[in-house]
Amino acid sequence: MLLAGGFAQALTPMNLLFALIGVFLGTAVGILPGIGPALTVALLLPVTFKLDPGGSLIMFAGIYYGGMYGGSTTAILLNTPGEAASVVTALEGNKMARQGRGGPALATAAIGSFVAGLVATIGIAFLAPVIVKVAVKFGPWDYFALMMIAFVTVSATFGNSPLKGLTSLALGLWLGLMGIDGLTGQARLTFGVPELLDGIEVTTLAVGLFAIGEALMVVSMHKTNAEKPMAIKGSIWMSLEDWKRSWKPWLRGAAIGFPIGGLPAGGAEVPTFLSYNLERKLCRDKNAFGNGAIEGVAGPEAANNASAAGTMVPLLTLGLPTSATAAVMLAGFQQYNIQPGPLLFVQHAQLVWTLIASLFIANAMLLVLNLPMIGLWVRLLKIPTPWLYAGILVFAAMGTIAANPSVVELIILVLFGIAGFLMRRYDYPVAPAVVGLILGPMADLQLRRALQISLGDPMVFLNHWSSATMLAIAFIALVAPFVFKGLSRFQAEED
Amino acid sequence: MAEVAPGGHQRWALDRPKLVTGIILLAFAAVTAYDAYSMSFRSAYGLNPNTASYLVAGILAILGIGHFISAARPSEGAAVVEADWKAVGMMGLALASLIACVYFGAGFIAGSTLLFAFTARAFGRKAFIVDVIIGFVIAVLIFLLFNKLLTLTLPMGPLERLI
């Protein structure tokens, strides 16, 4: 019933127009090489600032889905996946494009994303109220423990070494300390700079680390890489054979992606890898994979989209972002004065269901808009690299000073850009820093609330079975990679 | 631990970047701990505003030491690709000129034009004047769209006031 109300709200002509603009902009920016969905959302956030809350939310949903889809187009046509979750898509998708089957590859990615998005959004609509029922009973200790799980899994799943992932997370936590403490008014780590009193903007960190850092990284080695976009030859439509081979991977991908995205485990790349491996095992023709198998595009793309929708479950119901994209989206919600969490469903039920309805609409709009416009998107890929990155930098700087017009903000942006460059160069993941910045202060708040209730007794976290269990999970997830690494070295020495 | 053998063959080559990262992390930890130490507030039940600072300082210190241990270990050490520092420097100039333009009140359009042109040059473009013109057109368009249509505040300069 509430969902119907949400649709009624979202389906006005004006809001449909906002959704259309959002999907268009999201795809256009997301398609640019090196720009993943997190950065797309961060870059386009200023566009939505001055709209009414409903309209901006709807445009926002469109940007989000558009950015997701744009990433897969880059992976297929250019073989330069903008984010970890598109790496698998590039494996078979680029092979297909090289054989002149880029059209069907893009089509199966688009339709698969639509199917998976539809399944997953229905999942959100059903699952969210259930989780909210549980979440309203959560104490501060439970939230704190949940955030510990998110911290550990986000930094352990990204990148190749837990030490590097945790270091990136610690950078985010450190930045999260900056500014005035909400409970006591105490300034932390502001070094006497008044602009730092408000704390670090998540979007500034995301744009600096992702956009400026990526641009510096690309320019530092621009002589070594030169990928040309694949021309699309032949029909862009899928044949009957393609449909037959695609529909099962779509559904399987959605079934794998949604639950994993919903866990506070972060990272959409895990379900895409799982889906790829599953499809390869199930494929009858053993030679198909590695030579442009459409199943290898259909499954992972569906899994990617479903898991991205899955991250909306902890984000909306618990206020817990478990990926960089979700962290940036949370920052967006806060711009519109919306604080996700169980209370949101109770107090602003209409708004939540409008958002969920907009996700449906944006998803459908994506399909209608993108298949006929593939030609235009391909042309975007042909923008010469110098102009492309120059344009990205201008837009990134504009977004940052529009949100907060000050030189200090620009300098901070450039510093984050340098940090992002160095982190990329030495193989440190950047996403945990973004999650750390937004979750750190929240964890601090819950920790102190819990200790306030227990009159300073830290045992409060272990006396509740729920938080004790979650802390144990977080601890195991933290220690396991180091232990297993040690074990494997031990075995290696035995041999 | 990590000594270069007199013969010159480096069996225990120290991982320099990791060592530097470790030092930076320890420095951050020290700054954070000092900042927490110098806060003044009325004490309450274990919920002081500096508790989190001390926690983060502790995490940073542990990670710093972790980097030292990891740096001393003979690792496979993924080779870092040689960077084109001239191009990186040109891009630094691009970003610096934007900051300078905003700081000295030359405005958003001038800053963005320079940012665009220098960045394109960093990526190997030679036609500087053409890039300046393209950057200028893009900057004006962005300014019109965001300042006039979406009424966002962008840094104003003499040029912006004319439009």
TrEMBL record, chain A:
Coiled coil: none annotated. Residues 16-434 form the DUF112 domain. It holds the Pfam family TctA. InterPro entries: DUF112_TM. Keywords: Membrane, Transmembrane, Transmembrane helix. The chain crosses the membrane at residues 16-45, 57-78, 105-131, 143-159, 166-187, 199-219, 351-375, 387-416, 428-445, 465-484. This is Tripartite tricarboxylate transporter TctA. It comes from Nitratireductor aestuarii.
Automatic annotation (TrEMBL), chain B:
It comes from the Bacteria. InterPro entries: DUF1468. The lineage of its organism: Bacteria, Pseudomonadati, Pseudomonadota, Alphaproteobacteria, Hyphomicrobiales. The keyword Transferase does not apply. Residues 20-155 form the DUF1468 domain. It comes from Nitratireductor aestuarii. This is Tricarboxylic transport membrane protein. Pfam families: TctB. The chain crosses the membrane at residues 20-39, 51-70, 90-116, 128-146. Keywords: Membrane, Transmembrane, Transmembrane helix. The keyword Disulfide bond does not apply.
